Amino acid sequence: MSSMNKFKKLAGISAFAFAAMTAANSVNAANWRYAHEEYEGDVQDVYAYKFKEYIEDNSDHTLQVYRFGELGESDDIMEQTQAGILNFVNQSPGFTGALIPEAQIFFIPYLMPTDISTVIEFFRESKAINEDFPKLYAENGLELLKMYPEGEFVITLDEPVTTPEGMKNKKIRVMTNPLLSETYSAFGATPTPLPWGEVYGALQTNMINGQENPIFWIESGGLYEVSPNLIYTGHGWFTTAAMANKDFYDGLKDEDKKLIQDAADYAFEKIITHIDGLADDALAKIQAASDEVTVTRLNEEQIKAFKKRAPQVEEKFVEMTGQGGKDLLNQFKQDLKDVQND
Description:
The protein has 342 residues and is α/β, with parallel strands linked by helices. The chain is 50% helix and 17% strand. The N and C termini lie far apart (48 Å).
């Protein structure tokens, strides 16, 4: 861990030291604490504040929301949640995958549909999402409240690319997630894992030095004006999850448990409305800000070449997760089939 990250972590823990000693073990604390891994106005931030809105409008409790960097990196806020310092955390499977390997299932390319209405229905109805995943999270001291989509995956590069061969030797910065690296290796690129908070800063440094390294940015709704060529391959949706410290949650009165579940449902309904059209709006702003931006949307024939490489990622997932992961993947596929046949 870098000195800066250590400082952030210590600063975050110090900020809570008194509260932790006096209230961490109190399941009925009036002020609950919720941290996420994005910035002001990003999807996780909108979800958090809708969650807060419901909690405070329907109870005497208050909710303090902490954005990315205020309490450290993604691993820091997860550690603080598991320790009971934080009550709630919002973290993507990209980072939770280190703790719960099965969560990396969302990075198997071309597993998810691209149509937003089908994606939303899947999150509503899926047995894998709503029954199997909560058990996996519970085994790690977490009460899974809600999984939800943020946006379609987009690749940004230093030139337009339409084939896996065109990806060769392209350095793509990705989250520190083994299966995500496997995906872009399968696509022909050279993935470089980097902690979330360092991605944009690293790219800025490269640009200042005249090195426009390609970068993978996780959601089209969060694209920055950092690379002139955006590539839509239709290979997946970025997913995230809201959860609570399980000891905290289990110790609550039934009415507070219901309050939290209702707040999670309320925030979910608000966020799926929020993300509809978000990517298009963000893209329009980027294009309006620069005449150099190009957008490449692969056609079906071009996508086939990338799809042919997806099975090796699926095999890697099963290798990493064993029979449990294989069973989850089968359920995942069945759920998707059920939704698409409705």
